[in-house]
Amino acid sequence: MPMKPIQTESTLQTLLRQFQDCRHQTEQICAPLTPEDHVPQPMVDVSPPKWHLAHTTWFFEQFLLGPFNPDYRVYDTDFAYLFNSYYNNAGKRILRPNRGLMSRPPVQEVLNYRSHVTQAVTDFISSRSTAARALEILTLGIHHEQQHQELLVYDIKYILGHQPTFPVYGEAFGLQAEKQEFNWVPMEEGIYSIGYQGDGFCYDNELARHRVFLEPYRIANKLVTNGEYMEFIASGAYSDFNLWHADGWDFLKVNQLTAPLYWHQQDGQWLQYTLNGLVPVDPTAPVQHISFYEAFAFAEWQGKRLPTEFEWEAAAEQFSWGQVWEWTGSAYLPYPGFHKAPGALGEYNGKFMVNQQVLRGASVATAADHSRNSYRNFFAPPSRWIFSGIRLADSL
Amino acid sequence: MPMKPIQTESTLQTLLRQFQDCRHQTEQICAPLTPEDHVPQPMVDVSPPKWHLAHTTWFFEQFLLGPFNPDYRVYDTDFAYLFNSYYNNAGKRILRPNRGLMSRPPVQEVLNYRSHVTQAVTDFISSRSTAARALEILTLGIHHEQQHQELLVYDIKYILGHQPTFPVYGEAFGLQAEKQEFNWVPMEEGIYSIGYQGDGFCYDNELARHRVFLEPYRIANKLVTNGEYMEFIASGAYSDFNLWHADGWDFLKVNQLTAPLYWHQQDGQWLQYTLNGLVPVDPTAPVQHISFYEAFAFAEWQGKRLPTEFEWEAAAEQFSWGQVWEWTGSAYLPYPGFHKAPGALGEYNGKFMVNQQVLRGASVATAADHSRNSYRNFFAPPSRWIFSGIRLADSL
Amino acid sequence: MPMKPIQTESTLQTLLRQFQDCRHQTEQICAPLTPEDHVPQPMVDVSPPKWHLAHTTWFFEQFLLGPFNPDYRVYDTDFAYLFNSYYNNAGKRILRPNRGLMSRPPVQEVLNYRSHVTQAVTDFISSRSTAARALEILTLGIHHEQQHQELLVYDIKYILGHQPTFPVYGEAFGLQAEKQEFNWVPMEEGIYSIGYQGDGFCYDNELARHRVFLEPYRIANKLVTNGEYMEFIASGAYSDFNLWHADGWDFLKVNQLTAPLYWHQQDGQWLQYTLNGLVPVDPTAPVQHISFYEAFAFAEWQGKRLPTEFEWEAAAEQFSWGQVWEWTGSAYLPYPGFHKAPGALGEYNGKFMVNQQVLRGASVATAADHSRNSYRNFFAPPSRWIFSGIRLADSL
Amino acid sequence: MPMKPIQTESTLQTLLRQFQDCRHQTEQICAPLTPEDHVPQPMVDVSPPKWHLAHTTWFFEQFLLGPFNPDYRVYDTDFAYLFNSYYNNAGKRILRPNRGLMSRPPVQEVLNYRSHVTQAVTDFISSRSTAARALEILTLGIHHEQQHQELLVYDIKYILGHQPTFPVYGEAFGLQAEKQEFNWVPMEEGIYSIGYQGDGFCYDNELARHRVFLEPYRIANKLVTNGEYMEFIASGAYSDFNLWHADGWDFLKVNQLTAPLYWHQQDGQWLQYTLNGLVPVDPTAPVQHISFYEAFAFAEWQGKRLPTEFEWEAAAEQFSWGQVWEWTGSAYLPYPGFHKAPGALGEYNGKFMVNQQVLRGASVATAADHSRNSYRNFFAPPSRWIFSGIRLADSL
């Protein structure tokens, strides 16, 4: 995981503060849950909240405390097997679809594990002249945990949204109206520089910074709204094969989809499950919980298209973003000059660079300061439980 | 569910006591569990303990309190949807494979629900001249809950036995050595009467009592032991197709089976997961957790066979039984004169009379006085998470 | 495969004639087919006609010529791999679902193979004092090929019936009206002898002859007709769960069944594919191509039941049978004293004695003299491509 | 399907000649097959040769003769249902996995159908002043049939290569040694124009021609050979997860892959099935029949990468290509300004632009003059039955 290092005394304190805030924030996200809510895995992409709490902790133990602190004693040697996600280099692990079978350890023991590791990291960072590489790992661990915070919100919503009783989690993570007037942002043809530039942290997939040539285009200054999406549905779009990719059409048919995830039609009205319960769909808020296939089909229906990730990045300072992640027309591929780091941390991004689509922006569930113009999020095209939406573009 | 009715004043008190003991016993079985242990469904045949606690309660609400007590107010109208098992006549329900997704209601609310219904039944039975049919339903409900107590033990063992940490539940439900000397019990040819006879409770599948002719046979006075089963394994039986049904051989290959469920080989020694943790296999105890296919193959290997359920019943007073259920060579079919009762309770047994094999006897997890000579247990041939074993027979 | 042996000079000629007729008949069944029709395997239970032609030939080569004629040279050593069906003792073979991938050898070469083996058997039987065991194998091989003749008809019908163009095969194998007046045949309680008795050929599963006690019952003198079955359908039976086994109900729903196999509704009329093309359903002919689940549900709907195989055999001389095989209420289990023969021929019947239901009688596709009162046919409960029908019974 | 039109008198004759040659060539490819070989569909991606023969014929009937020749009478109205591939706009069709069940019509009737349509097209084109759009469709139909010629070769190889007897098809379509010395072709950074330019035929996916910026790179002048690939295997690459995409690693494990398709290890030697039978792997010939995952992993192992499709096209005149298609690192996405044509022909390319990887070049099975520098072939990453290989590239 190549990243911009360099830590002074004062940044060390900042980093420690970030670490502690991050650890606290994860626990806050789970605070409204019952112990039982921490257990289920209703689909393979969703992990039990208990697992997120433990896995983000194991990451610090495995990659920071273990290698860099010779005095550290592993909290429980079984946990590596239970809470490794996908790092082949870090040893065996339970199969992903079996995460929801692990009732043990109970939530309280996972919280104890968290406290133990949070304290151990704090002591380790505070008390000695820490190697620069260890501080890099710490930084990566914070960003890693921030990513899991967002997944936690997705997964909690999925777990609660599949209870027949539609329970209330709380008021957080709701979407607001997109209030600005619709405008096209025109962009001129030319060579643009793409990828991270600066001294802060970035992921390896944002590098190397490089040049792309863009033909002239324009990009919308606001997200597609629920109101527009209801028109799309009402037009019969979910049964018009001409709007869809072949794979997308199969996906619709196999799963019998007729609306975004969490939408339910009752007496002719569209309701949606939110973390605040089942409520009428707000036509002014951005549409959310749609797959790449649906985003593509909506753009087809409009006679427009999705922006590429390069078009998005080149224009990103000219519109506001951050309620939902935005599907782009770009497949997730390495930038010129990208190389995987050796070992487990090299598995972080590179091995997923096939069969995935890039999303840009951020969502209401994204940790503050976690995203940036060059940030590349990615998911498989059918993903709907993520906080995803649509911004349109057009060639000129 | 036709059963022998007639309740006097004193039997009413006995019945109420049985009901309360039964309710208490179910809760005792779950007492060693964490809230998290109540949630997972690691395979479709296993139900979450929370579900058993609630379903056995719903049964009394649905079939006793609702129809017979006009003053009863349903505890929560969502619960019928959540906790109906398979009664089509009692309305819609969540799909069986989704039971493990229901983190709500939490365990504590299920226990509140239990208390509410236990009290309502107690009040209802105590305070008024209850219809004979209501007492029949109460009796059935007790026997139904006793069946679920046994399933609870199976399911808890499966959930805990699939934790990588092999947690300890407690000392209950262990098997003892079969200490008696091996003997064959010889049985003469003749007409035997089969099926329930008496004034107590029985299930509809034990009726009508009828006659069968048996050719001469003999039946073992003890169960096959782990020691004998280890010899069977050591002989290469799991790779000798000649010993197996075609379906059984496929079952072995698809699931890569080489030993009973819960057996693990470590350094050349066989260990088994028990509710008391991972321990060496005891060669003197009866073999347990084998499918019908394995029971059949073992008998083939011995040059013997499994008894039919009729042979078992005819001889049952001449040997001891009750550590594990015993696979018979009989498919689960209706007795002459069997008729399903109308409505939901008719779904109790009859609709399962295909593709199942009969087991006779009882197990250490069977409620006291729940079983009897004429009792017909049944499971699909591949079932291994049940407390099942082998008794041999032979034609003369 | 234990069978009644003893061959004199004149029976030797009879046997040879039977063999040659049998070989010829198999080829006649395939005569109306194109080479292309010999190839597909539209579901796993169906084998390509080419495969049947070759497999029945391989059987004589493998079990008769190879072991008993030291001068015989195997026609093609690859064929054992291609045309062994399920005899684990006879070596490796292609997986059953892959039979339809084998375009080679072409039909003409299979016919050459048939001629070669037919001639070799004829020469072998004619020219030397053949061992009694060889004649037993020859007899078994004829009966084996007769069974495949019937499967050939089923499989040809399935292949042609799944062509969108519903091609005509020919006039053979159609059903006639059941013209007799409906009557119940009453049967008294008592001990009946069951199983083959006599000096002719029988399968091992018809032995040992043994005694069963039957409670009093009655059995219909005619088969259920298409007309009656259309009433059953019209009554809503395919959506009334109370009539069905739990497994049967799942089977209906998963496969979206609403009528027997080969039935098609057009403009409110029921048509059925026959080997003579798509024609209106004849209400006077027996219903055909129904699963055990449908047979059971029909009987439930009538307030009757299916006969057991013992009831059927005890009464079989008192009604006519032979248009379609008749589902019984009996699971396919060994008779008392049954033992598998050692080696490959022991795999013929015994290893299928689980998860199957017995059918009794014969069908229009059964070779003349192939069936008898004691004959036990068996198929899995969902089977519908076989020539199966319904006879009702009732307890008295 | 936008394409460069304009037909003069003499080009009309050329076009007709191309049409007739093309039709003849398809039939030549099938000439070595038996009728039986035309039937099987051993995996869902493979179509029966009979289907290709008919489908390419239906294409001319459906899109050329039907719409443009008012006198044309459809040969058989059932054929549209049988031989439409994936054109939703052209009506219903049999499900793709069921193509191998259609034994009817027989091969000879399909050949008759071909003759009929070939003649009808010839007459139609020869005898009247044909609309320019009709000539465009004819041109497209020829290119369409050429694509199916290549698929025919793949599918024939798959069908024959899965016969246990490894039959010989003939000498065609073998690979030669890559004899040139290995060299890197260096390429400078800059803006390159990508996409089709010229007056001939091209597919819509090659347009619009547009500009891309390429960072400096180099690209190999020869394909990776079997010899190099055997070293890759021998190094343990198929069990080193660090070389693989996560999806690729799953693909290996699920399918238990250890070598390219058609490779068989015998006595420590690698053999491969070719259309000329089973022969030792030639170390000097290019590796063939590998998935995108394997191409990627090989490049990782070499410390290199696959070229993007833009890098390939920019450099294509500087190396020879054409024995096998070359996997690129580019996902199959629309070019700027791409729009689907309306109606069925718009389904030709656009709806597949997700979850596919681009291949560039041509193969020994590609029709002469069918490919070009701008030609974009595409397949899903796991595809191995195609004639695919590897060319390496590197960033500078």
Question: Which key features would you list for this structure?
Answer:
Four Helix Bundle (Hemerythrin (Met), subunit A), Sulfatase_Mod_Factor_Kinase (chains A, B, C, D), 9 helices, iron (chains A, B, C, D), 396 residues, globular, SUMF_dom (chains A, B, C, D), homotetramer, alpha+beta, 12 strands
Model description:
Chains A, B, C, D: Pathway: Amino-acid biosynthesis; ergothioneine biosynthesis. Chains A, B, C, D: InterPro entries: CTDL_fold, DinB-like, DinB/YfiT-like, EgtB, Sulfatase_Mod_Factor_Kinase, SUMF_dom, SUMF_sf. Chains A, B, C, D: Keywords: Iron, Oxidoreductase. Chains A, B, C, D: It comes from Cyclobacterium xiamenense. Chains A, B, C, D: Pfam families: DinB_2, FGE-sulfatase. Four copies of one chain form a homotetramer. Chain A is α+β, with helices and mostly antiparallel strands and 396 residues long. Chain A folds into two domains: 12-161, Four Helix Bundle (Hemerythrin (Met), subunit A) (Up-down Bundle); 184-395, paralog of FGE (formylglycine-generating enzyme). In chain A, 34% of the residues lie in helices and 13% in strands. In chain A, strands 10-9-8-11 form a four-stranded mixed beta sheet. In chain A, strands 1-4-12 form a three-stranded antiparallel beta sheet, with helices on one face. The first copy, chain A, is globular, with a radius of gyration of 22 Å. Chains in contact: A-B, A-D, B-C, C-D. Chains A and D meet through strand 3, helix 7, helix 8 and strand 8 of A and strand 3, helix 7, helix 8 and strand 8 of D.
